[in-house]
Design a protein that fits this description.
alpha/beta; seven-stranded parallel sheet; 9 helices; globular; binds 2-amino-2-deoxy-6-O-phosphono-alpha-D-glucopyranose
Length: 262
């Protein structure tokens, strides 16, 4: 894993956008695994700014999103379809026909999982963007007894439901299930860009980088992927500084383990 520590939130957005810009420029037909949430939002904004200002071209990329709430139609403002269209696809000029998000309202959700799994297999991801939830989830792969390989339906943890409830209005039904690609799909991506920001992610960041690799903290599996770059802001990395400074010293002195790569 390569680790980049961003001074603050704005610099995390810029560094992440630089990374994606480089990959899209190298390969205009990049297959990009997308993710939603607060972690990549500023990066999408920055990419949209570069598209408008410098003509950064996304017209040939393909995107595959990790997950969607079960029960939310694509037009629901809290659906991941809606998020991506508003914050990434439209502002960056990505043709909607090049994008894929699981359907949250398919008549048969299990069939939708099979369809999406086959789609993912047929379109190998070049670069997968990821965030991490408070439970350690990646995509919506919540803590379990084993790592799920394929696209599946997941019962969201109470902690995840509470964290995401801030996006829903008072009294509005908050989905308790989602469709998510499996850990196997995420691990097959050629490259992964992991973004972690904010003090509320300090504990999970510590577990992710320093704890045992376990399906109880699904994001820990990323330590076994051979090409992950993590961009983490100062608040999120704070407990690693405090509890395992030697690990970050290794990083800063450019020795084995966590090294910087821009
Ligand atoms: C969400 C999404 C994930 C995301 C994670 C972290 O609910 N399903 O794909 O990476 O939880 O979200 P955030 O970046 O808002 O903390």
């Amino acid at each position: 894993m390569y680790l980049i520590i961003a001074e603050d939130s704005a610099s995390l957005d810029r560094l992440a956008a630089d990374f994606v810009e480089r990959r899209v420029t190298e390969n205009p037909q990049l297959c990009l695994g997308t993710v939603t949430g607060a972690s990549p939002e500023g990066m999408y904004r920055e990419l949209a700014r570069r598209h408008a200002k410098n003509g950064l071209d996304f017209s040939e990329i393909r995107t595959i999103n990790t997950d969607e709430y079960l029960g939310l139609p694509a037009i629901h403002p809290q659906s991941y379809h809606f998020y991506l269209e508003q914050k990434f696809f439209c502002p960056c000029g990505i043709p909607l026909s090049h994008t894929a998000v699981p359907s949250g309202t398919a008549e048969n959700a299990l069939k939708e999982c099979e369809r999406y799994e086959a789609f993912c297999r047929a379109h190998p991801t070049d670069l997968q963007i990821l965030g991490v939830g408070h439970t350690g989830h990646i995509g919506f792969n919540e803590p379990e007894d084993c790592f799920a390989d394929k696209t599946h339906i997941v019962d969201l943890h109470q902690e995840t439901i509470s964290a995401n409830s801030v996006y829903f209005s008072d009294g509005e039904h908050i989905p308790t299930q989602a469709i998510t690609v499996g850990i196997g799909t995420l691990m097959r991506a050629k490259e992964i860009l992991l973004l972690i920001r904010g003090a509320s992610k300090a504990e999970v960041t510590y577990k992710l980088l320093c704890g045992p690799v376990t399906p109880r903290v699904p994001g820990t599996i990323l330590r076994f992927h051979r090409n992950v770059t993590a961009i983490i802001d100062g608040e999120a990395i704070s407990l690693v500084w405090e509890r395992a400074p030697e690990l970050l010293r290794e990083y800063t002195s450019g020795q084995e383990g966590f090294t910087e790569r821009r």
